[in-house]
Structure formats: structure tokens, C-alpha cells
Amino acid sequence: FILCTVVVAALFLFSGVSIAQTWRPEKPINLIIPWGAGGSTDQVTRIVAGELEDALGQKIVAVNQPGASGSVGTKTVMDAKKDGYYWASGAAGDLGTYIVKGFLETKIEDWHLYLDVANVMVVSVNPGTPYKDFGELLKAFKDNPGKITVATAGEVSMGAVAIEAIKKNSGIQYKHVSYDGGNPAVIATVSGECQVTPQLAVEQVDMIRAKKLRPLAALTDEDLPVKGYGTIPSIKKWIPNMKGLPSYFGVFVPKGVPNEVVQTLDNLWAKSIANSAKLKEYADDRAAVFTPFYGKAAQEKAFPFIQFVAWL
């Protein structure tokens, strides 16, 4: 009996299959992307799906189902049978605050989090403005309260969270101009319709490289390296007491699914996703941070941002 056990364990070891990976799906998995095609959530989630398909031996069908700040698609997963064949995706900051916004009766603790990247906000200006660094912009905000235009994707967007965090830590006033998405807010700043945008780096990076936006500060604890551009200084250089606000994105599986589903995904995240060259390349190219966390570590990483947004 002991010899047989050793042989079986050795077969698992040398075949590259983990004993913890006990779930082999028998039909395609539905991965709901609660935002439109081509956006930051859509891009990274489809990469993750591709990395997991071979390991699971089953097709992962990515379905875009936007609406109500991501809550429509998320509700589809909440209402589905908890058998492991329906996954959600997006920003943990959204998932953890739907209940505060009145969208969905769910909390972050109701989900198994599988994070892939953290997107960070960057304060950028139109190159035609006179602001050469964030210190100059900060002074202009204070000298002209409520007059400098700031383009964001709306009241609950990452850009709005960024500018409100700056306001909270510096006392500035600004003129908020809301657009239907991060890309339109960025384009509005590029065109000169607005002076400033604090949207996600992933939404700005192409315009930054093309020198159509001038990045002044990253809402990070450390300076942010941007491939093909250089380094964007941390906002802590000017507001030392301000903490970085990384927004963690990933795949979310509702609690109540079979334990073998969770064990398998935990194992795949620790091996396939944590060592994914494609995800690392994506993060490097899009000025994001590669963050393959799951389980308790994922909850701990995501909660500070959720907490800040909820109070905001």
C-alpha cells in the first residue's frame, strides 16, 4: 500500500499534474466580463482565460455583458447555479462596493478572488497646459479653486476616486467633467477639451508614449516605470501622507461552488498564472502591476481600495 501511494504521488509529480487539481470541467466555462469589448477589463481577462484553458482542458467562453457599472454581468454570475461553470471578472473595488452603491446585495467576502493585475491612476495634463510637474498643477488648483477642468469616466470611476483622494489629502477644488468611459475622458484631455485627467495608466499609456499627454504623478507608493516612456514620479513626492491606490483586477468565483473547483483554481493561480509570461508582458506594456494573488492574500490586497471607495 505504501509503495503504491509513493508511485501514484510520483506519477502526479512527474506528469506536472498537482494532486490539488481535482476538478476537470466537463463543459465550457462561462466567464462574464461586465464591461464592453476592448477595454482594460476585457483585455486582461481574455489573456487569463487563454492561460487557463489548456490547464483545465476545457473552453472558457468570455462573454461581454456591460451595464450599471458592471453590476449587470456580475448579477448573472450571482444568479447562476454555483457549480463552478460561471465566473465573474472586473475590478475588486467595484465588486466590493456594489452594496454601498445600491446595485447588488453582495460583499467582497462572498467571493473567491483571483487577481491578475493592479491598475494605477496617473494624473496627466494636456501638453498645451503650463504645468511641468505635479507641484505646479497642485498650486494652480489652489490658486484657482473650482476652475481647472478634470476629465473622468464618471462619479464612481477610477479617475473620480483619484481626484477625490487628492482633494481629501490636499484640500483642492476642481471642476469635474464626466465622460462615458475612461477612453473618452483621456481623448477629451488630449484634444484640450479638459486640462487634466486622472484615469488609469492603462487607458493613458498610448497617449503618454505619443507625447499627447504629459504625465505628472502616479497614485502609487513608488515611482511608476512606463515602457517606452520612462518613469512617472509617485504623488508622495508632493503629498507625502497620501497612500497609493492600486485597483486590483481579476476573476471572481462566488462562494458556494464545490471545494474541488476552488482547490483547482488556487493551484492554477499559484502555478500557471503566477508564471504567465503573457500576463507579465501585458502588465509591463500597459503600465500595470502584475499581481497574481488569490485566497486570503487577495482579500487583504483588495480591501484597502474597497474601503476607501466605500467611504468616498
Low-confidence segments, given as residue ranges, are 1-20
Instruction: Tell me the span between the first and last alpha carbons.
Output: 60 Å
Number of contiguous helices:
12
The rough form would be described as: elongated
Major beta-sheet overview: 6 strands, mixed
Rounded average pLDDT: 91
Order of helices and strands: HEHEHEHHEEHEHEHEHEEEEHHEH
Strand content: 15-25%
What is the strand tally?
Answer: 13
**Using only CA atoms, what is the Rg?**
21 Å
- What spatial order of strands do you see in the largest sheet? 2-1-3-12-4-13
Structural class: alpha/beta
Q: What level of helicity do the residues show?
A: 40-55%
Features:
42% helix; disordered N terminus; 312 residues
Would you write up a description of this structure?
This protein is an alpha/beta fold. Helices cover 42% and strands 19% of the residues. The chain contains twelve helices and 13 strands. It has helices spanning 2-15, 40-56, 71-79, 92-95, 98-101, 134-143, 158-170, 182-191, 201-209, 259-273, 277-285, 295-311, and strands at 29-33, 60-64, 86-91, 111-119, 122-125, 149-152, 175-178, 196-197, 214-218, 224-226, 230-232, 247-254, 289-290. Strand 1 (29-33), helix 2 and strand 2 (60-64) form a beta-alpha-beta unit. The chain is elongated and about 60 Å long. The relative contact order is 0.18.
